[in-house]
């Protein structure tokens, strides 16, 4: 058999070793979820930025304003991703 089935007591025993850090574990899971949301958000704004660059020839002033806005959004999302990643790594390192 390729997959070995584990019973619930194995995972329960593992979680019981860190039972005093349940709050940190919950914060770490939330940080993981936020870290997983970052790249789909990047892709949404990348599509919008490509649309702005495609329309640059027709209306350069509006396209420049939109491009600056999306560049700022990229920057803020990058900072948020950095902070969330640091939080995630430090919490899971603390938990062990």
Give an overview of the whole structure.
This protein is 82% helix and 0% strand. The chain has one domain. The model has no long low-confidence stretch (mean pLDDT 85). With 96 residues, it is an all-alpha fold. The chain is elongated and about 65 Å long.
Notable traits:
single chain; 96 residues; mainly alpha
Number of folding domains? 1
Q: How is the main sheet built?
A: none
Please provide the ordered H/E string of secondary-structure elements: HHH
Per DSSP, the total helix count is: 3
Computed over alpha carbons, the radius of gyration is 21 Å
Overall pLDDT, averaged? Answer: 85
Which class best fits the helix and strand makeup? Answer: mainly alpha
Bulk shape: elongated
Beta-strand residue percentage: under 5%
Terminal Cα separation, in Å?
31 Å
Helix fraction by DSSP (H/I, runs of at least 4)? over 70%
Number of strands: 0
Taking pLDDT < 50 over at least 5 consecutive residues as the criterion, the unreliable ranges are none
Describe the SSE topology.
Layout: H1 8-17, H2 22-54, H3 60-95
Helix pairs in contact: 2-3
Short description:
82% of the residues lie in helices and 0% in strands.
